[in-house]
Design goal:
Number of helices: 7
Largest sheet: 2 strands, antiparallel
Oligomer: single chain
Number of strands: 4
Radius of gyration: 20 Å
């Protein structure tokens, strides 16, 4: 009888997790304060101050993540988010999982979701534009090279808001529909993988290279 074994692997480095939460938490706060500023629901001075403080936490998180994309290692690198033939086929399986409301099985992947990996890169791009336009407005540069910083900031706000909503829904959906503990993985750095008995080298552990091979089955 074939049995399934579980192995726990460190996937996300310390600095990647730090940058993730330095981006995620301030971004939610910035979206809320931005909405309140636009609707003028609270005193403008108080909301502006909170908005600027949150941006001060977001900036180092974004800079760390951008540094890791180009100068990090392993799953931190930009190449880990880039699509290839295998990831594109897996991305289609993720889409089918969404279209069937979780009835179709999710593919196995090691680090970044094959569908969301390229979307993360786009998110970092628009978040960078939002930061640039925000600091331009803070320093009273309303137009740069004929481009309205107010319009740019508003457009990137909407893109980031929709991304954040869909990202949270997707992560919870993956955690419910899969078995790799995606949510806790971004806290402790580890993901859980199921390995078939025939793929297991010993009763205690499996080599990481062998694990990576099984994820392409």
């Amino acid at each position: 009888m074939q049995t399934t074994n579980v192995t726990r692997v460190l996937v996300w480095s310390h600095w990647l997790r730090v940058s993730h939460w330095l981006i995620a938490i301030p971004t939610i706060g910035l979206l809320i304060t931005g909405f309140l500023m636009n609707r003028q629901l609270l005193p403008a001075t108080d909301i502006h101050d909170i908005h600027y403080i949150l941006s001060a936490f977001l900036l180092p998180g974004l800079l760390i993540r951008l540094y890791l994309l180009f100068f990090g290692k392993g799953t931190e690198l930009l190449s880990d988010c880039e699509p290839d033939r295998h990831r594109i086929s897996q991305a289609w399986q993720v889409i089918k999982f969404y279209l069937t409301l979780g009835k179709a099985p999710l593919p196995k992947w090691f680090s970044h979701n094959p569908l969301w990996g390229p979307i993360y890169l786009a998110f970092f791009f628009f978040l960078s534009l939002s930061v640039i336009s925000g600091f331009a407005l803070l320093n009273e540069y309303s137009i740069i090279s004929g481009l309205s910083m107010t319009d740019l900031h508003h457009i990137t706000y909407q893109i980031i808001a929709w991304y954040s909503l869909l990202h949270v829904v997707a992560v919870f959906t993956h955690d419910l529909g899969g078995s790799s503990s995606d949510i806790s993985g971004m806290i402790n750095g580890h993901r859980i993988f199921e390995i078939k008995e025939s793929e297991k080298q010993t009763s205690q552990a499996i080599e990481l290279d062998d694990l990576l091979k099984t994820l392409k089955d």
